[in-house]
Amino acid sequence: MNPANQTSQIVDRARSTSKCGVMICCELFLAIVLVWAGSARISLAAAEAPATRPFMPWKSARVLLPNENGYGPIIGVLVSNDVAYVATGIYPINVNGFLTVLKVPVNGEPVSVIGKIAAKAGPDSINMQVNNNVICLDDKDVFIRGGGDGVYDFPLDGRDPCRIDTDPAFPSHNATALAVLNGQLYLALELSHPVETRPPEGMVKYTSRVRDGTWIVRIDPKMKQMQVLAWSAQKEKALPMDGGPPVAWMAADVPRQRIVFFITAAKGNEKRSGFWSLSASGAFKQVCPVIGSTYLERGGQPRDGKVSVGLNGCGITGLDFDLASDRPTVFYASQAVQWPKSIDDGLDRLHPRFSGNDFFYPLARTGDVLWCGNPMAQMAPGSGPRYDFPPGVLKTGNWDIDARPPKIELSLDPTEDGKAMIAADRYGVWRIDMAVAGD
Fold it and tell me: Rounded to two decimals, what is the model's pTM?
């Protein structure tokens, strides 16, 4: 019988009889107990019903290279053929130490050391976390830019690593980007000098750096001979360098035998901004201009004929640059980069676009899914669902960092089969196995 009906019947009987007040109170108390017991049974049954587990876009996250790796902070990562090539070592400015290159299989097999060499951090080392173009490689060598003080060759055949920017003709040892093509190493260089400010009395003095010049050079790693291909003092219109910021990213386009890079032109000469190519014969060509002062934040390496690039004008823009057509596909834009009409009319935009304004680099795309490292999250296009990684998923061993939602600031790269994401920052390297609905 329903407990509420029992209560009603007891009250009616109490009113129709001459029972004393004590008996009435006892029966009313019994009714209340019956009602409570019935409600408790209903609540218990609901609690025992199996809860539906919300879908999350990752199955697991495991450490491939821990924070306490014994080699120092991670300064660069490049994923190729399901191997993460990791550069570790010097990070603070003007600190003597070692550069070490590690081979980290993404399937979890043991980590091996490719080579280790004494090095010194230069004035640019503090900025090496900003751009991941620290490593490039071919089938014989891994090349590392040391962050303001040297460029190094780590052979894959077991020979000792060595420094290769030893030619006295080198205008600077501060390499800001690098790529290798046909065994020749292409470098972007910058030369600057420190200037101490003289603030008003009572203000703190600080030292800034003034740019003296930028170059693009080619070097034979075996002979250690260098050739200047372009520099900022040249005024030829066919050359990209014009006194603006240094080149921050390069990539080798092997099928078309060229190097692709991005130029942010000096103020008043913005028409030179955009994507450029450098042929193996040494010819420069602007292949995809942009409008205004647009900076390259991140640049990846070729994958399936495309390169993922992050630009920053007045907002964040993530795009895939197609190397065959020299045209971009914009897949994320908090505020879109402006393109000339000749480019914009045929611009391939991924629809619907990803929404949201709080995503920052690194960005990666697998199919129609966007991955973001800062904050660590995955998002479907348009108004689709967004999944933020909770604290503790990517463990670093630092309780203060692990207590916060994770942020990956160095690189995000999908594995060859597209089923996992390799995430790396200064604290470690992780493999994140993806999940699909129904797993």
Answer: 0.81
